[in-house]
Amino acid sequence: MSAPATTAVERPRLKVRYEAEIRKQLLADLGLKNIMEVPTLEKIVLNCGVGRATQQQSLLEGAVRDLGIITGQHPVVTTARQSIAGFKLREGNAIGAMVTLRGTRMWEFFDRLISLAIPRIRDFRGLSPRSFDGRGNYTFGITEQLIFPEIEYDKVDATRGMDVTIVTTARNDAAGRALLDAFGFPFRREG
Which pLDDT does position 9 carry in this prediction? Predict the structure, then answer.
């Protein structure tokens, strides 16, 4: 009886590039002493708020479907933490969807984001370099899900935006910016 054939798992392109080139470059650029101090990607969180889901439940189902197609992972439906009478919102109502990507899926999504999706944004002049949170994490908004090539234009019920948070192991904004710059992240030129 022969051993079962093992299939070689292909590693994400950006992760291989990070380990071969970018990590060593950042070690020198940031003046760090240990290779383990070099910042890396920890996770990517996509959050899609659907405020009108309280009146029309199908909008939330569409957001869950779109996030699932974009990320390849089933989203978690988020609920309201408190009641707000002015928005006709009650505590516990489903009002959004979110996905947390880690590992291989995170690296593949990040590759598709910077090489395919972001260049498809209309009138794109770069992302703001000021959207760091003070701890090296970067958050930006996407106005429509149609920039992702996985989404079929004919099957979209409504255009919806989402927030993308890139969580890094960097200790400050300068290290986080250096990490994203090394990957070729499209920041807007200041000045």
Answer: 72
Whole-angstrom distance, CA of residue 118 vs CA of residue 179:
18
Which residues partner with 45 through β-bridges?
Answer: 100, 165
CA-to-CA separations, 178 to 88, 94, 133, 170, 187, in angstroms, rounded: 44, 38, 15, 9, 11
Rg (CA), the chain: 19
Per-residue model confidence (pLDDT) at position 191 = 62
Per-residue pLDDT, 5: 63
Q: What is the pLDDT of residues 163-179, one digit of tens each?
A: 999 999 999 999 999 99
Lowest-pLDDT range of 32-36, 48-52, 88-92, 150-154: 88-92
At residue 172's C-alpha, the angle toward residues 167 and 177, to 5°, is 70
| Residues in Cβ contact with 143 at an 8 Å cutoff, skipping those fewer than 6 apart | 121, 159, 161
Query: E strands along the chain, which residues?
Result: 41-49, 76-79, 94-101, 138-142, 162-168
Which DSSP letter does residue 148 get? S
Q: How many CB atoms lie within 10 A of CB 160?
A: 21
